[in-house]
Amino acid sequence: MAYRRTEKTERRLAEVRERIVSAAWAVVAKSGFEAASVSAVAERAGLSAGGIYRHFPSRGALLTEVFERASGHELGVLASVAAPVPAPVAASDGGVRERLARVIATFARRALDGRRLAYALIAEPVDPSVDAARLEYRRRYRDLFAGLVREGVAAGELPPQNPELTGAALVGAVAECLVGPLAPEHDHGDDESLIANVTKLALNVTGVTADVG
């Protein structure tokens, strides 16, 4: 008869797995993916290296899990910012262009508030499996922006354009603008000015030339 894990055992294993992911996330947030060696994660989690491998087949698999969770969390925050505002508040929220501006500003501000993690997620050289996840999340960000652009075009707030192409351009433009300021060796400057300029540039990509918000 095959061994069947008890509910208590499954719960304990899940708790240990979560502890490993949390430890790896903390290391990446502080020092980047390169610093998140199996031994560093194991030490922070209070486990042996072997204990890590009992839950993840490789370091790449663990770091991919961290990347997906961190990126998924950030994408969820932006999706909530992008969501239409219910009436009667919607009457004063200014429409799609203002929501798009808030999404861009929120993305930039959160990245600058958590520079090391943001740099790791956006630009740090990574394991191929993490890089594949990064490409997938870039597509998801593109789709989020494309949805707003499509809505803006339909409402007459934005000029006619290809939403997917503009969405991809927004992801690339915003990420590229932030890579330098997020780099570990970069001196912190005027974050609010940077956020305002990145937001204005991103809106220009969609055909919005007037100041918004």
TrEMBL record:
DNA-binding region(s), residue ranges: 37-56
Keyword DNA-binding applies: yes
Cross-referenced Gene3D superfamilies: Homeodomain-like (1.10.10.60), Tetracycline Repressor, domain 2 (1.10.357.10)
Record keyword Magnesium present: no
Signal peptide positions (record): none
HTH tetR-type domain ranges (all copies): 14-74
UniProt keyword annotations, A-Z: DNA-binding
InterPro entries: Homeodomain-like_sf, HTH-type_TetR-like_transc_reg, HTH_TetR, KstR2_TetR_C, Tet_transcr_reg_TetR-rel_C_sf
Pfam family, one: TetR_C_24
Alphabetical list of PANTHER family matching this protein: HTH-TYPE TRANSCRIPTIONAL REGULATOR PKSA, HTH-TYPE TRANSCRIPTIONAL REGULATOR RUTR
Protein name as it appears in the record: TetR/AcrR family transcriptional regulator
Protein source organism: Microtetraspora glauca
